[in-house]
Amino acid sequence: MEFSAAFIQKPLDEGLSEKEVIMLFNSLLGTHAIPMEIQAENAVAMGFVNLTDAEFMNYDLRKLEEFVKEIISDVEKENYVGWYEFLVEGVGVLNIFIGY
Questions:
Q1: Strand (E) or helix (H) holding 63
Q2: How many Cβ atoms sit within 10 Å of the Cβ of residue 44?
Q3: Which of 27, 31, 38, 99 gives the lowest tally of CB atoms within 10 Å of its CB?
Q4: Could you tell me if 85 and 70 are in contact, meaning their C-beta atoms sit under 8 angstroms apart?
Q5: What is the DSSP letter of 62?
């Protein structure tokens, strides 16, 4: 499956490996992406949002950031497959991946 945005959740003091960056990028729709880092209290989600969907959101990624931050901040909101649906008003539902 290809996603509009893909992230890996990590502890605050870790970065992404080359393998993780390639995996995230390859899981996106399209061929261009914007990097994102979303910090929560005890974790960070690092990854990319594809350029087309960023354009659909007029490059205002604050709601996407809040959506991801809520998930990585609350174990109850996480699911084992890492696939989430994010509703963008006027655009529709975007498929988001948040892995470990």
A1: helix 62-73
A2: 19
A3: 31
A4: no
A5: H
How far apart (Å, rounded) are the C-alpha atoms in residues 5 and 41? 21
Q: Where do the structural domains in the chain lie, given as residue ranges?
A: 5-99
Global pTM? 0.91
Can you give the pLDDT of all 100 residues of the chain as single tens digits?
Answer: 899 999 999 998 999 999 999 999 999 998 999 999 999 988 999 999 999 999 999 999 999 999 999 999 987 788 888 999 999 887 789 999 999 8
Q: Which amino acid is residue 47, in one-letter code?
A: G
Instruction: Classify each residue of 62-99 as buried b or exposed e, where b means 16 or more C-beta atoms within 10 Å of its C-beta.
Output: eebbebbbebbeeeeeeeeebebebeeeeeeebbbbbb
Contacts of 35 (CB under 8 A, 6+ apart): 46, 47, 48
